[in-house]
Amino acid sequence: MNPYAAGQSRNSAVGMKQLVVIGGGVIGVTTAWALAEAGHRVTLVEREPALAEGASRANGGQLSYRYVSPLADAGVPLKALGWLLDPEGPLRFKLDGTLAQWRWLGAFLARCRGAVNRRTTDQLLALGAYSQHCFGEFQQRAELDAIALRSPGKLVVYRRAAEFEQVARRTLAGGPERALTREECLALEPALADGGKDWLAGGIFTAGEAVADCHALCLQLGERLREHPNFQGWVHAQAQDFVQEGDRVVALRTSRGELGAAGFVLAAGLQSKALAAPLGIRLPLYPLKGYSLSAPIEARHRPPTVSVTDFERKTLYARIGEQLRVAAMVDLVGENTAIDPRRLAALHRNVRATFPQAADYDRAIPWAGLRPATPSGAPMLGATPLRGLWLNVGHGALGFTFSFGSARILAELMSDRASPIDLTGLELRAA
Predict the structure, then answer these.
(1) Vertex 191, ends 401 and 347: CA angle to 5°?
(2) How many domains does the chain have?
(3) PANTHER family attached here (predicted)?
(4) For residue 9, pLDDT beyond 60
(5) How many CB atoms lie within 10 A of CB 98?
(6) Which of 207, 222, 292, 325 is the most buried (most CB within 10 A)?
(7) Rounded Cα distance, 290 and 3, in Å
(8) DSSP label at 255?
(9) What are phi and psi of 79, to 5 degrees?
(10) Distance between alpha carbon 329 and the CA centroid of its chain, in Å?
């Protein structure tokens, strides 16, 4: 029996609209699914020959619903100076010759204040909790059974005792997070001892946090979309610009022709910025370039079971199926996807020192991708000043985590209903 037979959409009572989603990464694919489930006819436009070839291809794979602190924080500018002086540091900056880079940096620095960071963190925690709820529904309805999903919890480890103690004091008794001593960290994740014990000061563990294969999820959800009675198809084309009539967007011009619709969702990552600009809409997006390694795990290896994040080195380690995913670094170098051999070498040294027995690093597959981020670290969701044009962009390094909740929010709004969560701080004017 086809579980997507006509009449089984979640909200069949809403007025059906013809909608176009631009972008075939995890944000675009989940949005297309949510809109189809809400009872709308949906077309997906993607410029690459396959889905999830950009930032969704080999990201960290963590679903960090409760660990969502944005990059902009009070101590970041001072820390950044130290990182920039360290050739193997987690942050690298290079002038790209654009005014947009300076604008983004200025706005980012303006938000590096504790009060601003706390407000943004509260907003992201609400979105994360809602997205976790939505993921369960996505998985059940779409029968996502090939995504290597696990929920081992997340352990953020600290190398500096003073930093760990400061964070541990802020950990609320009875809350979802637990502060663990060095010995408790090693008991929870014995593989941490393989790189020596002296470097480890302690850690913060959050039970229930998950890991999954983002690329596999996009591909399987794409297959389910093709079976959905409300899905009109996937157009492999370059989105070029919009056709505007008064204050309404009525069509999308592509390299394969024009697509008319009642509504359009910009979910194309960095490309969204260029598509919005001719309409007078400035999206404050800048690429945070990240790197990853995907190393095969064999029977002789001892990978971590828990999802681990090295706080100081901004490196995460997650077992996804039969591979270890190692993801790290934030390079502010413009729209450059080339793999820098020095950054790759640094990533290799870090993982070999921390988890020397976890995987076959000689056969690791490297990757670099651009994560579109706003200065605040919060995505931009919802309506624009132009009728018919909607946003689901700017998720930065948390696109996988937030994709399910963001998609459902767009589906509710575009079905003429209220957002299920407060969007203060998450709308265009607040970016």
Answers:
(1) 60
(2) 1
(3) D-AMINO ACID DEHYDROGENASE (PTHR13847:SF280), SARCOSINE DEHYDROGENASE-RELATED (PTHR13847)
(4) no
(5) 12
(6) 325
(7) 38
(8) T
(9) -60, -35
(10) 14
Structure tokens at 69: 């602190």
Asked whether the beta carbons of 180 and 203 are under 8 A apart, the reply is yes
Residue 323, beta-bridge partner list: 296, 320
Could you give the CA distance from residue 144 to residue 326 in angstroms, rounded to a whole number?
Answer: 24
CATH of the domain at 339: 3.30.9.10
Alpha carbons 287 and 367: distance in angstroms, whole number: 15
Residue 82 lies inside a defined structural domain of this protein: yes
pLDDT tier for residue 430 given thresholds of 50, 70 and 90: low
Task: Return the percent helix, strand and coil in the chain, to nearest 5.
Answer: 35, 25, 40
Q: Which helix (H) or strand (E) holds 398?
A: none
Cα 47 to its chain centre, rounded Å, is 20
Q: Is residue 173 part of a domain?
A: yes
401 domain-assigned: no
Q: Which domain, by its residues, includes 85?
A: 74-97+149-211+286-373
CA nearest to 124, candidates 178, 71, 166: 71
Token pair in block for residue 110: 């303006």
pLDDT in tens, 296-325: 999 999 999 999 999 999 999 999 999 999
Query: How far apart are alpha carbons 372 and 332 in whole angstroms?
Result: 11
> Helix, strand, or coil here: 97?
coil
Q: Is residue 329 part of a domain?
A: yes
Q: Which two tokens stand for residue 334?
A: 């413009």
Q: Is the pTM of this model over 0.70?
A: yes
- Whether residue 77 has pLDDT greater than 80: no
Name residues whose C-beta falls within 8 Å of residue 196's C-beta, 6 or more positions apart in sequence: none
Sign of CA dihedral 401, 91, 350, 371: positive
Which residue bears the tokens 């709820």?
133
- Strand ordering across the sheet containing 248-254: 239-245, 248-254, 257-260
pLDDT at 11 over 70: no
